[in-house]
Design a protein that fits this description.
The protein is α+β, with helices and mostly antiparallel strands. About 30% of the residues lie in helices and about 25% in strands. It contains nine helices and 17 strands. The structure holds adenosine monophosphate and magnesium ion.
């Protein structure tokens, strides 16, 4: 409870930001629940019913029960417990997300890696066990992190981690998949306009009632979740941010955040505070925001430019901002502490 309350407060702030920008405060029908390790909020406009909300939140909970690394009896928990021992039968949805995670692991040259689990466990960031591990502890788990050691048998619908001690962690991609699933349910119910906010992983369906785009606050990575430094105008888009503000602890004046380098085992430090992706698919945007944060600006912007319908906004530690070629078309900085990087003009 001690840990959940600040998360709830921050998520409510975030929800308030979204409601403010929709221009109908107090009227927005919505539902919020703690699921997928965060507060998830959905606003359905015109045609929303308790039945649709229930279907959405049941689905979010189902995804959590399949893909959470911290639940022993989830698909991921069972695969992890059988690492080096045997293949485990899983739900086809788990295979779908895992295959997409492997796609981004390859695309990012391993900066993004769903087998990062042993490192996540060792650092325990965001849990009661968070601490700076000893160098030899890090060295011991690094060989276990390699997405090529995941065996998937699609016909048998099984997953096998070939090395004992390996652990999958889909924390960087599962919320994106969940947002896409929520959108799918909403569209199937013929609801044209909706806001989905899964702990800051945002997907907007349709546009505002007057036909103009939604105005979505972009996370200010120098503050807690829900604070924003700019506004993006978006219709039928997903907006996903990864950064140092999300989960971290501080020790000796240094911040240790939750995106870990599979190469050296420490929180990634590439001079960035955050990366926001604006795209069409939330599973891809979620994987990409983590991938680009881990890759850094130089390699990350090249990768983003190579992808269709994908814009990326990079915030550096000096609060300068760079973006891919189309990023500033629909995005405006509203906080004076931030400025567009001199080279970006
Ligand atoms: P996100 O907030 O989407 O960027 O995801 C961060 C979460 O993904 C962390 O809390 C870990 O569970 C996991 N993670 C950390 N480092 C990596 C990495 N290099 N590749 C893939 N997942 C990671
Ligand atoms: Mg992510």
């Amino acid at each position: 409870m001690r840990r959940i309350r600040p998360v709830v407060t921050r998520a409510l702030q975030c929800l308030i930001v979204l409601i403010l920008f929709t221009g109908c405060p107090g009227q927005a029908p919505s539902r919020s629940e703690f699921v997928l390790g965060t507060v998830c909020s959905v606003n359905l406009y015109e045609g929303g019913s308790q039945k649709v909300y229930q279907t959405i939140f049941d689905r979010l909970r189902e995804i959590e029960n399949l893909m959470s690394a911290s639940l022993e009896d989830s698909d991921i928990g069972r695969v992890n417990n059988a690492a080096g021992i045997e293949a485990v039968a899983v739900h086809p949805d788990t295979i779908t997300v895992l295959k997409r995670a492997i796609y981004f692991a390859e695309l990012s040259g391993g900066a993004f890696d769903p087998t990062v689990g042993p490192l996540v466990k060792l650092w325990g960031i965001g849990t009661d066990a968070e601490r700076i591990p000893r160098e030899e502890e890090i060295a011991a788990v690094l060989p276990l992190i390699n997405w090529r050691d995941i065996g998937i048998d699609e016909d048998a619908c099984t997953v096998f981690l070939t090395q004992p001690g390996m652990r999958l962690d889909l924390g960087a991609i599962a919320k994106g998949y969940a947002a896409d699933e929520a959108a799918r349910i909403i569209k199937a119910a013929h609801i044209k306009r909706a806001l989905i906010d899964l702990g800051g992983n945002i997907l907007v369906l349709g546009a505002k009632r007057d036909g103009t785009p939604w105005r979505v606050g972009i996370q200010n990575p120098a503050e807690g979740r829900g604070a924003y430094f700019g506004i993006a105008e978006a219709a039928d888009k997903t907006l996903v941010t990864s950064g140092v503000y999300e989960r971290f602890f501080e020790s000796g004046g240094k911040r240790y955040h939750h995106i870990l380098s599979p190469r050296d085992g420490y929180p990634v430090d590439r001079g960035l505070l955050s990366v926001t992706i604006i795209g069409d698919s939330s599973i891809d945007a979620d994987a990409l925001s983590t991938s680009l944060f881990a890759l850094g600006y130089e390699a990350g912007s090249v990768l983003a430019e190579s992808l269709a319908n994908t814009e990326a906004i990079f915030v550096f530690t000096d609060l300068s901002v760079r973006g891919t070629s189309g990023a500033f078309g629909n995005f405006t900085i509203t906080d004076d502490s931030f400025s567009i990087h001199a080279d970006a003009y």
